[in-house]
Amino acid sequence: MSTRHNPGDDGTPAVTGRAFDAVLCDLDNVIRFYDTAALAALERAAGLPEGTTTDIAYAPGTDLPLLLGRITPDAWVESVAAGLTERVGADRAHELGRALADAPFRADEEVVSLLRRARTHVPLVLVTNATLQLGADLALLGLTELADAVVNSAVEQVAKPDPAIYRIAAERAGVPMERCLFVDDRKENIDAAAALGMTTALYREPADLRRALGPCAEQAVVAP
């Protein structure tokens, strides 16, 4: 784990009075955002309400096997298509599933900047329900070195909000759970972290993260 955030090692003054000694942060809908405009256009053309494909794809019985590393993304697309075939036919169902799987994504640069600043003060761990493609995705985003550690459900074979994944993340951060700040966009994940004694922040916009980080949202200044 990087030591760049250890106060005093390089003359960087410590941030005092904070309620946490590590930041555990979700990835999707906090840092990474998908562009589903092409999928929405296909749904309209098929006579489906927008969001139909994602409702099927992200139902627990469909996406949990993917997020636990038990099936491939291609197998997930097949599952999504199976849930749509009766409504739009097999060919269009596969087109919709593939459009979701291949949707382009981007990183929110404001959030990335805030997290980079926080990491100059405390360890940063990404805690995400993701696939075995996560490493390649982070590389595409240029975020391979964003965090000190990445806790990926598909690797650990346990997904949020299971308490086990939070324990793994705190251990990787090297601090007790009650000294972790956990940031996520889903309330059930926040509630699970709070039940373990973590400080939590429900994410809706970058201002929520900035507020939760407090002084850690500022770039550390090295003392002369």
Give an overview in words.
The chain is α/β, with parallel strands linked by helices. 46% of the residues lie in helices and 12% in strands. It is built from 11 helices and 7 strands. The strands form 2 sheets. It has a 5-stranded parallel sheet, sandwiched between helices. Strands 2-3 form a two-stranded antiparallel sheet. α10 (187-195) links the parallel β6 (180-184) and β7. Mean pLDDT is 92; it is low at 6-14.
Short structural description:
The chain is α/β, with parallel strands linked by helices and 224 residues long. The chain is 46% helix and 12% strand.
Key structural traits:
elongated, two-stranded antiparallel ribbon, alpha/beta, 11 helices, 224 residues, 5-stranded parallel β-sheet
Poorly predicted segments: 6-14
Question: In percent, how helical is the residue content?
Answer: 40-55%
Q: Please indicate the percent range of residues in DSSP E strands (runs of 2 or more).
A: 5-15%
Per DSSP, the total helix count is 11
Estimate the mean pLDDT confidence: 92
Sequence of strands across the biggest β-sheet: 5-4-1-6-7
Largest sheet geometry: 5 strands, parallel
Q: What general form does the structure show? A: elongated
By helix and strand content, what is the structural category?
alpha/beta
The total count of strands amounts to 7
- How far apart the termini lie comes to 26 Å
Cα Rg: 19 Å
Give the helices and strands as they follow along the chain. EEHHHHHEHEHEHHEHEH
